[in-house]
Write a structure and sequence with these properties.
single chain; 516 residues; mainly alpha; 0% strand
Length: 516
């Protein structure tokens, strides 16, 4: 029960972070598009993507460190925990330093290769060499702090720090672009604001780490080569998986920029923002389970592993399916109200991107809790065999579609959807065999009713959309809770079984009696 409460609290804090991100993107994207221009806004996305691409060079140590620290915490091995933490920090800094130097020297070439307009090239090079390098370092150090906190099952702190970082950035950009008069170099102003916010958020994160984790965990004198050995045992598979995930997700803006320039990235990025902000409602609770699945594996608690897989998949897919349906149904009207003033007819492209991302995410959310369960029991080899070739096919297909057809920006998502549909059944079957769960049982308890309820919800909303007209923000705001409630009722009636409905009723009734 204690673990369940902590998981629920971790999930709630992650959802709070999501709401802040949604508000941030909703408010600031139109502001930044106007202040920076479509190409300038595309450049900011390009800088972030280039830096995020360097994170694939972590050799898989990022997730391996979190998993191994959770195991040391479960075993109460203080010496190895400290040695692993300090050694991990040294290892990550050793990777980040040469990457930062490479970024400094390669910046002019990157700017030319991704067709940044001439008038923005100097500012873009400077951004890569300053904010890009700073962001690279914090991106390599922050996972060490997050891994230590997750080992203590305090992912709520990790989520709260992310919320704080987003809030600080939001306030900083409001001051930088709405309070002060327009600047002749808006890109540099964006870089200064983002850099200051990055440093402030990192310092608060470090202070939180020191309060929770074993004292002296990051002291270099506690580093032990022997403690790092488990990272190398697991990191090969993790590196291959991270590389393929990176190719699948981060390559799209780079491919678009190469063939269509930063203006195309701006359209893709705008369509991605809301979906990427909402995605953690499902992905973060899933990824935050690995300390629990690791502990269950270390202690031989097979019943817990079964529950994490079957019921975890069911509830996360239930949440994710409703989110995807709502985004798909509302994409056109939302994008029109949100960005038509800033982008005009190009808003239709943004809406198409948002719809296709919703379809892609629906397939992604079907994975449920498979990833943390497989990570907890260190069974990742099959994932590598499936992910590596499918990711390469995805990238090659995206290059062909963008570079040699007339489909446009949204074409990069077609390959992602097709590859996802092909890949999902293989991973489903493998997870069942490893955990020892019947495929039919897993499908019935984890998927069947959720698939039916989501299809019913989508069909109903598409049918009603022909008769319901939304003419402004007020209509949109009033219709959203009604639509969401309708989707929840369908999930209640079709997606939940009788036992689940009984538990929910008791929970609500007990809370009402407590209030009275």
């Amino acid at each position: 029960m204690k673990d369940l409460r902590q998981i629920l609290w971790n999930s709630l804090t992650s959802w709070g972070s999501v709401l802040i991100k949604i508000g941030f993107f909703f408010h600031m994207v139109p502001v930044l598009v106007k202040a920076l221009g479509a190409e300038g806004f595309g450049v900011t996305g390009l800088v972030l993507v280039v830096v995020s691409f360097t994170l694939m060079a972590d050799l898989g140590f990022r997730a391996s460190l979190g998993r191994e620290l959770s195991a040391r915490r479960a075993e109460e091995d203080l010496e190895d925990f400290r040695g692993l933490s300090a050694g991990g920090l040294i290892l990550f800094l050793g990777i980040a330093i040469p990457l930062a130097l490479a970024l400094v020297f390669a910046s002019p070439w990157l700017v030319d290769y991704f067709q940044v307009p001439e008038e923005l090239r100097g500012d873009t090079v400077l951004l890569l060499r300053t904010y890009g390098v700073l962001h690279l370092f914090t991106s390599f150090v922050r996972p060490v702090l997050a891994a230590g906190l997750s080992a203590f099952k305090r992912l709520d702190i990790v989520n709260n720090m992310e919320t704080l970082r987003q809030l600080v950035l939001w306030v900083g950009l409001i001051v930088g672009f709405l309070v002060f008069p327009p600047s002749e170099n808006p890109l540099l102003r964006w870089g200064i604001v983002a850099s200051v916010c990055e440093i402030a958020a990192y310092l608060v994160f470090y202070l939180a780490y020191r309060r929770v984790v074993y004292p002296g965990s990051l002291s270099f004198r506690n580093a032990r080569k022997k403690a790092l050995w488990p990272l190398f045992q697991l990191s090969g598979h993790m590196y291959a998986l991270n590389l393929t995930y990176g190719l699948s997700e981060r390559a799209d803006p780079l491919i678009i920029s190469r063939f269509l320039g930063p203006a195309g990235v701006a359209l893709y990025q705008a369509g991605m923002k809301i979906s990427s902000a909402v995605r953690p409602l499902v992905s973060l609770p899933a990824h935050q389970l690995f300390p629990y699945t690791t502990e269950a594996h270390v202690r031989g608690e097979t019943k817990k592993q079964y529950g994490y897989l079957v019921y975890g998949t069911r509830y996360l897919f239930m949440i994710g399916s409703l989110i995807c349906v709502l985004i798909y149904v509302y994409a056109d009207i939302f994008c029109h109200l949100w960005l038509n003033e800033a982008l005009g007819d190009e808003t239709k492209t943004v809406a198409r991107v948002m719809k296709l991302i919703a379809v892609s995410d629906y397939i992604l959310f079907m994975s449920g809790t498979q990833w943390p369960v497989l990570l907890g029991i260190k069974k990742l080899s099959f994932l590598v065999k499936v992910q590596v070739p499918s990711a390469l096919i995805n990238v090659l297909a995206s290059i062909y579609i963008i570079g040699y057809t007339e489909i446009g920006v949204e074409g990069v998502l077609y390959a992602t959807i097709i590859v996802g549909l092909i890949r999902r059944p293989f991973i489903f079957a493998y997870t069942c065999s490893v955990v020892g769960v019947s495929k039919i049982e897993y499908f019935k308890k984890g998927y069947a009713t959720v698939l039916i309820s989501s299809m019913l919800t989508l069909g109903l909303f598409v049918y009603l959309s022909e008769d319901i007209k939304i003419n402004g923000w007020l209509d949109f705001i009033l219709s959203l809770p009604v639509t969401t409630l309708t989707g929840l009722l369908i999930l209640w009636a079709v997606g939940c079984n009788g036992t689940e409905r009984h538990h929910i009723k008791n929970l609500v009734w007990n809370k009402r009696r407590g209030v009275q």
